[in-house]
Amino acid sequence: MRTRLLAILLAVWPAACATAEPACRDLTFEDTRYSLCEAQAGDDIRIFQTAPDGRPYGSFERINSALEGEGRQLAFAMNAGMYHADRRPVGLLIEEEVERAPLVTSAGPGNFGLLPNGVFCVGDGFRVIESRAFAAERPTCRHASQSGPMLVIGGELHPRFLVDSDSRYIRNGVGVSADGRRAVFAISNRPVTFHEFGRLFRDELGLPEALYFDGSISRLYDRGARRSDWGTPMGPIVGLVVPKP
Predict the structure, then answer these.
(1) What CA–CA distance (Å, rounded) separates 23 from 224?
(2) In the β-sheet with 118-122, what is the strand arrangement from edge to edge?
(3) pTM attached to this predicted model
(4) Where would one find the signal peptide in this protein (predicted)?
(5) Residue 20: per-residue pLDDT
């Protein structure tokens, strides 16, 4: 009986380990609380924009419903870039190696056009690349989303950020380690300036490249904490996909 029980436990153990997922956590930096979610190279990080019916997903719930057919679910997710009124992405978007929207390298109005902006690229590892460098290199990305502005570029804050800015919003973005093995997704839990948000990635997290996703509409899904921020339908969404238990 004991031998049989041990055999069952050994058979189940790999599946149980496969469902383990990195937990999001809260961190306080300069008197502001942030929620952080981390992924490692090899994790199933995806950009979600186009649902099976051809329409934008728009919500965490629709993504989870679509993943049920794979026996999978979101561990965490957040909005992943700016979008038009019909939820089409403003800049480059790649899903499962399919380019849904082209790269934009010109300056323009709003935060997206505040150059330098950049691209979050998921390949063998993770990269945050300035958009014009991306255009010159054209790296292979399984998933990618363009947004702007860059928060941290080569270890330096975006040159247009002001220490004394009065523009404050709930903001979210992603930073990537120098070796591309680690990506940290962050959302502020109270309004912050660009300068404050950039310092989180550079000074607290030690990440040399970081990209702003959006502000005011920023939302987080964290299954472990039973958090699913509510709001209007979103455009691009980035999430960590894990097997269902």
Answers:
(1) 7
(2) 98-101, 93-95, 143-147, 118-122, 126-130
(3) 0.90
(4) 1-20
(5) 52
